[in-house]
Design goal:
- GO terms for molecular function: 4-(cytidine 5'-diphospho)-2-C-methyl-D-erythritol kinase activity; ATP binding.
- It catalyses: 4-CDP-2-C-methyl-D-erythritol + ATP = 4-CDP-2-C-methyl-D-erythritol 2-phosphate + ADP + H(+).
- Keywords: ATP-binding, Isoprene biosynthesis, Kinase, Nucleotide-binding, Transferase.
- The protein folds into two domains: 181 residues, Ribosomal Protein S5, domain 2 (2-Layer Sandwich); 130 residues, Alpha-Beta Plaits (2-Layer Sandwich), CATH 3.30.70.890.
- Helices cover 33% and strands 25% of the residues.
- It contains eleven helices and eleven strands.
- The strands form two sheets. Strands 1, 2, 3, 4, 5, 6 and 8 form a seven-stranded mixed sheet that branches.
- The structure holds 4-diphosphocytidyl-2-C-methyl-D-erythritol 2-phosphate and adenosine-5'-diphosphate.
- Adenosine-5'-diphosphate (ADP) binds next to helix 2 and helix 3.
């Protein structure tokens, strides 16, 4: 029977994202507080029909992306199915590290997407992470190599693929320094409930480098302030770990939510301000997810999250209630 290996990796939000000055390599130093969300990308590796790596792609049935595709707001053909695809690049990184070349393998990658594309939720990074994990296991199960690469080795290979890829491999909640790739996991007691959010994708994408470039432009002319410091506030980490009453804990977390990319994202897409201003029972805070344009609503309960999701859908908006961090293991 032919071997097939599927792995999932989560989308993310940044509960805190401070950005420093651009470096010579075009990247910015950041202080990020990442959390996984319960919207998963899935990559399945199976035997290819010819030498090399082939790819196919589909949309997860119960996902905001499925609704976006049905309404014409998203076209799956916009995701490149070539060497630029992050799943391909993740697979290749593992093959290389095993001392093989692409001609030595015959693999097919099927990518099942659930996370909005170019939405500031790290969907492409999750595909890279899931492909790395799946190819790592597949090569051993098919007898191509004897030993899997360690988790640490995968993390090292992940960083050059993209600033968010190491986090996508790890999931949970982590502080990310450097360009976001130097991770320190934040361990929470099992008794602590996940946060409930409603993610509202836009019917368009925003390019991450364009949003960083708008921040640089605006800072140079005084439109946006410089960062207050490249550190995730200790008070935010304490609030996350607190075993206080749920509402008190969520309100305390909300006090520290910050994103230096929010103003530039809103400058590039002014309609986001309207979404941020949406009022509904149970909303504690609203913020731009990473480089946007997805808007995240932090809610007071799972029930409120489902009510807001339903209310927004009735108005023809895309919306999905998620938990952060994701409790689904991957
Ligand atoms: C902003 C964040 C927040 O988590 O993600 P998104 O919200 O877009 O998903 C990340 O920093 C994005 O991570 P990722 O999407 O993996 O970035 P990469 O592919 O490595 O970089 C794309 C481009 O973004 C810019 N970039 C990225 C990270 C960083 N610390 N400084 C940067 O200036 C660079 O212009 C780079 O060429
Ligand atoms: N597997 C992939 N899924 C989505 N986008 C991908 C993938 N591989 C490469 N890309 C490219 O990366 C861009 C941004 O990807 P994505 O991770 O969805 O957004 P963001 O960086 O905002 O989180 C896309 O516009 C697409 O051109």
């Amino acid at each position: 029977m032919s071997v097939q290996v599927s792995k999932t990796a989560p989308g993310k939000i940044n509960l805190f994202f401070a950005v420093g000055d651009v470096q010579e390599n075009g990247y910015h130093p950041v202080a990020s507080l990442y959390s996984s969300v319960s919207l998963l990308e899935k990559v399945t590796v199976s035997e290819g029909i010819s030498q090399g790596i082939s790819q196919s792609i589909s949309i997860a049935v119960e996902s905001p992306l499925a609704e976006m595709a049905a309404s014409g707001a998203f076209d799956i053909a916009s995701v490149p199915l070539d060497e630029k695809n992050l799943a391909y690049r993740g697979a290749l990184a593992v093959i290389d590290a095993q001392g093989l070349s692409v001609e030595d393998v015959s693999l097919h990658l099927h990518i099942e997407k659930a996370v909005p594309v170019a939405g500031g939720m790290g969907g492409g990074s999750a595909d890279a992470a899931a492909a790395m994990a799946a190819v790592n296991e597949y090569l051993v199960r098919t007898g191509v190599v004897a030993t899997e690469l360690s988790g640490e080795h995968l993390l090292e290979l992940a960083a050059p693929l993209g600033a968010d890829v190491p986090f996508a491999l790890q999931g949970g909640i982590s502080v990310g320094l450097g360009v976001g790739d130097q991770l320190t996991p934040v361990e929470l007691s099992e008794a602590i409930q996940p946060l409930h959010l409603v993610m509202v994708p836009a019917s368009f994408g925003l390019s991450t480098p364009h949003v960083f470039a708008e921040l640089d432009r605006g800072r140079a002319v005084g439109d946006y302030p410089s960062t207050n410091g490249l550190e995730v506030p200790e008070a935010l980490l304490e609030a996350l770990r607190a075993q206080s009453a749920p509402i008190a804990r969520i309100c305390e977390i909300a006090r520290y939510i910050e994103n230096d990319l929010a103003a530039p994202a809103c400058a590039l897409a002014p309609e986001l301000k309207k979404t941020l201003a949406i009022q509904h029972e149970g909303i504690i805070s609203s913020f731009v997810s990473g480089s946007g344009p997805t808007i995240a609503f932090l809610m007071d309960s799972a029930e409120s999250a489902h009510q807001l999701e339903a209310a927004l859908k009735r108005k023809g908006r895309f919306a999905v209630a998620v938990e952060a961090p994701s409790r689904i293991s991957f």
